[in-house]
């Protein structure tokens, strides 16, 4: 069967431009089952979707997160008009399958991980009731949801992602993983585990569940070797939700990378690792294994807020992790959030002060977004005011507040978010330090473009100061 997998493009200016690894896994699984697969990722494609569909496809799969669901529906409608049957998957359709199946151009929704379910669906199109994790419309038009599919435990048995279906160099040019240290890089991502057992109130577990399933270190390093020697990777990004849950496992991966001579290719952790699951030896091994930068999910500088969000880590653990990572010679990145339940101006000030104190090489400040399916979303529906039910407004990298609750107001959140960027990035000591780095000058056009966008956002926020009232929920 000819299958097209579609990833819509985000309208959010700072959204990641990374190869969609989930589709790459699904494509590889479909190819192994004998299907002909093509991938259309709107981020890098120059050919319109309509033109690609004209080549003739039996089945089209579209993936979507909450901010992208409208674009996913548009792609599904286009595919349906071209005569293909359409399935939606990803975080948002998993949580709200009935919403997507209400569209006449959506035939199926797969809940949870899609590799096995999609292969099974294509083999049982006339018997959809037999496919676990599938939702569909019966002959009366009613939505039927089959029992959930158990999560796959043996991740080592999955084929390596189908990177050959992607124009890899286009992703590297859009967003180099290692900040342009390698011109014209070929950047790849790798997943060494799936899921996260923690219960942070802002995080959805719609795909992976509240579980953590690791690949064996040997399987990870085998793929790493394949990326470097077969795919010609010059930089690699690790995309795990929680890479270091088992400390000994990460250390073994690092030792194997060193033993195999794979430490010459720089790599980074794209998401934040746990600050409370580290020690000095880990960072030393990561450095020897070729790691250039490690990220941490700091979130807040106020312990009270960390406890409210159920982060299960302390500010002192964060400080110690940064200290050890820097001592090992690693660059650091911190992820910080504004507008969490229970926040006030003092707690947001504490977050800014902690960011300045930690002084990571990169700091990412995000306005909290209440995604459906999270505890945070339910809290706001119950005790707060959600400003919009338009899913396109639920982007974490946008400069707009998404809700009000208690002392968390739109004016306060947006003001402190902008203040955080100013106080962190416009410090004279930081500017002087960055000016002395070769990478800064190589990436100057990118930094200037980002600064321009940030200043435009700041002007928009300033204009709103006179009227901070938000429209009520419809």
What is the CATH T-level topology of the largest domain? pyruvate-formate lyase- activating enzyme
What's the total helix number? 18
Strand content of the residues, in percent?
Answer: 15-25%
Q: Which regions have little confidence, pLDDT < 50, spanning 5+ residues? A: 460-474
Distance, first to last CA: 43 Å
What oligomeric state is this?
single chain
Give the proportion of residues in helices.
25-40%
Count of discrete domains: 2
Q: Describe the global form.
A: globular
Main sheet: strand order: 2-1-3-4-5-6-7
Q: Which CATH class of the largest domain?
A: Alpha Beta
Task: Sketch the major β-sheet.
Answer: 7 strands, mixed
CATH superfamily of the largest domain: tm_1862 like domain
CATH architecture of the largest domain: Alpha-Beta Horseshoe
